[in-house]
């Protein structure tokens, strides 16, 4: 039981804490515009594959996914899924806050 709890916390941490770093590592990808769809794809792939500050958090995130699959084998599915996902959101918010991102508030979506 303790192993499952620690695994779920680890999954939430690996998924959540890496999301803001992946977002930082991919800054500028939306500004790639060469006019050709295939050239854009090539330029975006080249941009992402050459950024170590994208790949390190991405690989840690994938380690979290492997840990999640392992945890699902030993934990009740109805508990593991909501706990891992909610911890992921919490760790994303905390890590983003420490990186200077704004916390989402009540007025996250514009009103009409």
Automatic annotation (TrEMBL):
Q: State the InterPro entries in the record.
A: TMEM234
Q: Which UniProt keywords apply?
A: Membrane, Transmembrane, Transmembrane helix
The domain of life is: Eukaryota
Residues of the signal peptide: none
Give the membrane topology: Multi-pass membrane protein
Indicate yes or no for the key word Repeat: no
Q: Where in the cell is it found?
A: Membrane
Q: Does the keyword Signal apply?
A: no
Give the matching Pfam families: TMEM234
Membrane-crossing residue ranges in chain numbering: 77-99
Cellular component GO terms, alphabetical: membrane
Task: Give the protein name, as stated in the record.
Answer: (Mediterranean fruit fly) hypothetical protein
